[in-house]
Amino acid sequence: MPRKKNDPISSKEKQNKGIMNLNDNNDLSKFKFEKRKTVKIEFEKESSLDEEAKGLWEPVHWRNFLVNLRTMRAKCDAPVDTMGCHMCTDLNESPKIKRYQSLISLMLSSQTKDQVTFAAMQRLRERGLCVDNILAMSDEELGKLIYPVGFWKTKVKYIKKTTQTLKEMYDGDIPDSVEKLCKLSGVGPKMAHICMLTAWNKTTGIGVDTHVHRISNRIGWVKKPTSTPEDTRKALESWLPKELWSEINHLLVGFGQTICVPVAPNCDECLNRDICPSKHLARKSPKKTPSKININVKNESTLQSESSNIDKVKKKLDNTLFEINKNIVKNIKCTSPKLENSKPSQSSSRTVGKRISQRNKLLEQIKKCKK
């Protein structure tokens, strides 16, 4: 019979319930309880559409700067225009040898002026600049031909080692990628990117040398100041359109050789002087020396004050002169010999000489005041 709600529970029923609870606990122990994994709340990244709407970073007025830069470089009056690495190859040679000559000129140009690199390349071309001739040449002869380029002794080793690699691995030709070029001895990213442009006519990146590195930081073409040319290259390529990469090196190098020089740039000749953030570095004009004859129109009050000051100075000079004359007379009396064989002391004669020289100086000052 079913038990009513208000009926009391018997002791036997209580015991049976306790046994059932124990059994339930034993069954629950079979389950493994694991901690819940913490869920990190991350904000969703902005979509590419939002980035395009906001726009990537780019320098202020860079398009105007580029137009003015092309205008200033239109004269082609910089050393890089006539003696740069692109002008060092022999046009009468085969494309394979021209590519090799382009690579050698870039290796020589590191920390060397274009004039010195061009002269060294001319000597090498007269000797016969090709892979076989360089390998047959002694280190001493090669050093004499490339001297005085910067670090010429180290470059002799690099040229020999690189030429040997080209002979063994590339059949005397040069690699056709930046990665392979950078594996050659003495070749860095700057040389590799310029070599790809001049030798293979491929734009793979911006060649950043000291001029491009300095000017890019000076004109604010990098978002943050960079410490190395490689950092500058990455910063420029992050915003500059790729179709401009091929010309930017040549423009900035010539600009840095003629106007935006390292020390005291010629900002007066620069068309970008109004929009350049570094215009305070402009070369200062030398101070003009005052002319010998200065004609100044003075008021009557100033003339009277000056004349009164001159009178005061004259009185002081007269008084001092009078005192000096007194002292001279005293010293002369003291040094006058009482006996015929006696001689004046040296100290007293020196004091007299000093007093006389002082008197002469004062007389000159009095003459100037009178004038």
From TrEMBL:
Compositionally biased spans, kind Polar residues: 338-351
CC terms in the record's Gene Ontology section: mitochondrion; nucleus
Primary location group: nucleus
Gene3D superfamilies found in the cross-reference section: Helix-hairpin-Helix base-excision DNA repair enzymes (C-terminal), Hypothetical protein, domain 2
Keywords: 4Fe-4S, DNA damage, DNA repair, Glycosidase, Hydrolase, Iron, Iron-sulfur, Lyase, Metal-binding, Mitochondrion, Nucleus, Transit peptide
Any matching Pfam family: HHH
Subcellular location, record wording: Nucleus; Mitochondrion
Catalysed transformations (reactions): 2'-deoxyribonucleotide-(2'-deoxyribose 5'-phosphate)-2'-deoxyribonucleotide-DNA = a 3'-end 2'-deoxyribonucleotide-(2,3-dehydro-2,3-deoxyribose 5'-phosphate)-DNA + a 5'-end 5'-phospho-2'-deoxyribonucleoside-DNA + H(+)
Enzyme Commission number(s): 3.2.2.-, 4.2.99.18
Domain of life: Eukaryota
UniProt KW 4Fe-4S keyword: yes
GO molecular function list: 4 iron, 4 sulfur cluster binding; class I DNA-(apurinic or apyrimidinic site) endonuclease activity; DNA binding; metal ion binding; oxidized pyrimidine nucleobase lesion DNA N-glycosylase activity
CDD domains, per the entry: ENDO3c
Basic and acidic residues bias locations: 1-16
Cofactor section: [4Fe-4S] cluster
Gene Ontology terms: biological process: base-excision repair, AP site formation; nucleotide-excision repair
Disordered as annotated region, ranges: 1-23, 337-357
Occurrences of domain HhH-GPD (ranges): 108-258
Function: Bifunctional DNA N-glycosylase with associated apurinic/apyrimidinic (AP) lyase function that catalyzes the first step in base excision repair (BER), the primary repair pathway for the repair of oxidative DNA damage. The DNA N-glycosylase activity releases the damaged DNA base from DNA by cleaving the N-glycosidic bond, leaving an AP site. The AP lyase activity cleaves the phosphodiester bond 3' to the AP site by a beta-elimination. Primarily recognizes and repairs oxidative base damage of pyrimidines.
Family per record: Belongs to the Nth/MutY family.
Protein name: Endonuclease III homolog
